[in-house]
Design a protein that fits this description.
The chain is α+β, with helices and mostly antiparallel strands. It has helices spanning 44-59, 83-91, 117-129, 190-198, 203-210, 227-243, 247-256; strands at residues 4-14, 23-27, 32-36, 67-72, 94-100, 106-107, 142-145, 148-151. The protein is globular and about 55 Å long.
């Protein structure tokens, strides 16, 4: 299902927990969203990672907030007193990414919460596949909302694409940082998760996910080709990662052992 596009109508409040300083905004569909700014320090690649990894999570049936594309008018900066926020809004004019805001959600506590082995295994598999470096005990990027575990903040995934030239040379590599995963201790069903989840990501599904990346996010100084060529490179890398022996799963099994 294609991503919806909404337009920001009101800047509500910043969320200063993250380095990119996302914000809660209201949109023209009367919904509230967590806006990830294209003009933040991490740049458009973080939005690409959010979109692609979030799309993969949705394809796998994992619990993630709805992802939307969000048009931001730089005129919204006029109502903000903070010069830093004004500059961020102006630098992010145009198309950004946002996630459905989950009011009342609380941070996951690995001491108090014990997810089911099947779900923990699926999340570990997903993070190993997408090379997500940011699901540790220090920063789980997991929320609990209405008693359900929700995955958030995937801007640090797909770390291979920083300084990338579009090759798939590293697609078959393991992901050693999975040893730091906050849910690894409960991920006792990785083999079953591998068999089930890999089958949900055929090449055409992966291609459809990366086809959602807007051209505007692929035109920066680090562009190695046209937007179409870059999208094809993302799809090829992810397809190769599944077609080759799953070293990322074997690494997670070793880390558990």
């Amino acid at each position: 299902m294609p991503l919806r596009t909404v337009t920001a109508t009101r800047y509500v409040t910043p969320l200063r927990e993250g380095g990119s300083m996302p914000a809660i905004v209201e949109a023209d569909d009367d919904g509230m969203y967590v806006l990830k700014f294209r003009g933040a320090g991490q740049g458009p690649r973080a939005l690409v990672a959010e979109l692609v990894s979030g799309g993969i999570a949705r394809a796998l049936g994992l619990p993630v907030p709805e992802i939307v594309l969000l048009e931001l008018d730089p005129g919204l900066a006029r109502t903000e007193a903070d010069p830093e926020i004004q500059e961020l809004i102006k630098a992010s004019a145009g198309l950004n990414l946002a996630l459905d805001y989950l009011p009342g959600a609380v941070n996951f506590d690995p001491v108090a919460e014990q997810p089911a082995p099947a779900l923990a295994s699926e999340i570990v598999w997903f993070d190993a596949f997408t090379s997500n470096v940011d699901r540790t005990a220090r920063n789980p990027n997991l929320m609990v909302w209405h008693g359900r575990l929700i995955l958030i903040d995937h801007g640090a995934s797909l770390y291979f694409h920083h300084g990338w030239q579009g090759d798939a040379d590293g697609a078959g590599k393991p992901f050693p940082l999975i040893r730091e995963h906050v849910l690894l201790r409960w991920a006792s069903e990785l083999a079953a998760a591998d068999a089930r989840l890999a089958a949900l990501l055929p090449p055409q599904r992966l291609a459809a996910i990366v086809d959602e990346i807007p051209d505007a996010w692929l035109l920066g100084h680090d562009a190695f080709g046209t937007p179409a060529q870059q999208r094809a490179a993302y799809a090829n890398y992810l397809q190769q990662r599944l077609a080759l022996p799953h070293a990322f799963v074997e690494e997670a099994e070793r880390a558990r052992a």
